[in-house]
Write a structure and sequence with these properties.
CATH class: Alpha Beta
Strand content: 25-35%
CATH superfamily: Gcn5-related N-acetyltransferase (GNAT)
Helix content: 25-40%
Number of strands: 8
Strand order of the largest sheet: 1-2-3-4-5-6-8-7
Number of domains: 1
Mean pLDDT: 90
Radius of gyration: 17 Å
Shape: globular
CATH architecture: 3-Layer(aba) Sandwich
Low-confidence stretches: 12-24
Distance between the termini: 35 Å
Bound molecules: coenzyme A
Largest sheet: 8 strands, mixed
Order of helices and strands: HEEHHHEEEHEHEEH
CATH topology: Aminopeptidase
């Protein structure tokens, strides 16, 4: 989340630069698919999500290690409109996290391409703190990883997390993200430069871990 690309000044820039060499599926550019798990449904963001996302993502505990979220409901509305334009441009996706049976947005997963064609990408996420430790993140993240590797065709998915962000780094490690190094003093937050850890998941590792999981499921019935 720390290096995700939204900034209000980007709203005036033209971002769509289609090329003839694009090979990725284009359907998601028109409308994101709905990704449904047992308790979580991920879907396209809507303007009407602004109020709930404002209340979920602007609290101190959620926002302290991420790029400052919009500070008003109207700011979230502009952010949501921006996510839709970026998705249509084919360089970025942002899913709203909802609970099955309730359509209220309680968090987001963002993925942006780091190079044209989405071979390398970066993701970020934030969930309202009432839902931390409930499994919502884990299930949502697994749905996003499948979308990233199978639909977007990403080869390497990176994340940056403040080293002090225990929940963020813990959540990434649980997903199998490998900590590759520390980007010293790379993230300015509240007037202080924080160290960030660089994490990555590569597609073959993700596929191998899914095979192991299907052969040796960890769930005990
Ligand atoms: C990051 C985030 C989405 C993860 O969701 P979550 O529900 O808190 O994640 P989980 O509980 O599934 O996993 C966090 C893990 O970190 C562990 N952890 C490690 N260090 C921790 C610490 N200092 N404090 C709390 N938990 C810690 C938890 O115990 C948990 O592992 P476990 O399930 O094995 O016990 C959520 O915490 C969030 O929105 N944080 C604010 C936004 C943010 O920091 N996003 C950027 C992340 S790079």
């Amino acid at each position: 989340m720390e290096k995700m690309p939204y900034r209000p000044e980007l709203e005036t820039q033209v971002v769509w630069q289609p090329t003839t060499t694009e090979v990725i599926s284009t359907d998601w550019r028109r409308q994101l698919p709905i990704l449904a798990g047992d308790q979580v449904v991920l879907r396209e963001m809507r303007t009407s999500d602004a109020a709930s996302l404002f209340s979920m993502l602007t609290t101190e505990e959620v926002a302290r290690f991420i790029s400052p979220p919009p500070s008003t409901v109207e700011g979230f509305e502009r952010f949501i409109a921006w996510t839709q334009r970026q998705r249509a441009a084919g360089s970025y996706t942002c899913f709203a996290v909802t609970l099955k049976g309730f359509d209220t947005a309680i968090g987001i997963f963002q993925v942006r391409e780091s190079e044209p064609g989405f071979k390398t990408a970066e993701w970020g996420f934030a969930i309202g703190s009432p839902f931390w430790g409930t499994g919502v993140f884990q299930e949502g993240a697994e749905l996003v990883l499948q979308f990233v590797f199978d639909t977007l065709g990403v080869h390497r998915l990176e994340a940056r997390a403040a080293v002090r962000n225990g929940r963020g780094t813990g959540a990434l490690q649980k997903l199998g993200a490998v900590r590759e190094g520390v980007l010293r003093k790379s993230f300015l937050r509240n007037g202080e430069y924080l160290d960030q850890a660089l994490y990555a998941i590569v597609d073959e590792d993700w596929r191998a871990s899914r095979e192991v999981e299907s052969l040796c499921p960890t769930t005990v019935h």
